[in-house]
Amino acid sequence: MTLRPYALAALLVLAVGTGCTIDLQHDLTEQDANEIYVLLSKNGIAATKMKEEGGNELRFRIQVPKADAAQAAELLRAYSLPRPMEKGLNHFAKGGMVPTATEERAMLLKALGGEVSNSLNQIDGVLEARVIVMIPENNDLTQPENKPEPSASVFIKYRPGLKNESPIKREDVQQFVSTAVPELKPAAVTVLLTPALPPDAEVGPESRLQDVFGMRMTASSVSQFRMMAGVAVMVILAAIGLAVWPMLRGGGAAPATGRPRPKQ
What range(s) does the Flagellar M-ring N-terminal domain occupy (predicted)? Predict the structure, then answer.
């Protein structure tokens, strides 16, 4: 089968344009997808949010240009996106096999910590929250005054505000966690607050969007776009040349007539 020049040009242009974007994240909730899209857009990365087909729940994926994939991945790492989701009490209640008393206790403590972690993760400005809860076992032989008290450890990674402040105070975290765990006193809650340090590339001029023929793209993508456009122009010119050359070549010979000219 012989391809026409225009069809060949179209295939070559399609081949050049294939693979310009890659999937950065998939199987995302709409909230995670929106947060990632906004973060990347603010940092000059031309991200695309797309719905994923199939499945019972609505899920999304984020695509970025290949040239910006490394910077995008670094941004997600720095801002702990997508947000971690811990297994809470609902997952604990769905257990299949009957666990031992020790296993059941360990799963309950983990589920309780996951439930509190997920609640803290919903606070605006909190990027990642993890809670570990310790509740000593009750012993009938232990005297009430010697009974060990429950404790908790909380790690929160947050996005600093305008004055580098935390979105939530340490005392508020202690009060919130102590309310969620039975017999837990606020003083027994240890809280570690750490700010997120954005990568240096976030404020670099190469991450700003530029207008090229009415399309907005990063500076790193401009050179790739120009190269692709140049290749496409050369392919189109070559296709036109292939189409016109047979006509130019056949037009040089004089048309032959069926009757000979009479002799003088």
Answer: 24-192
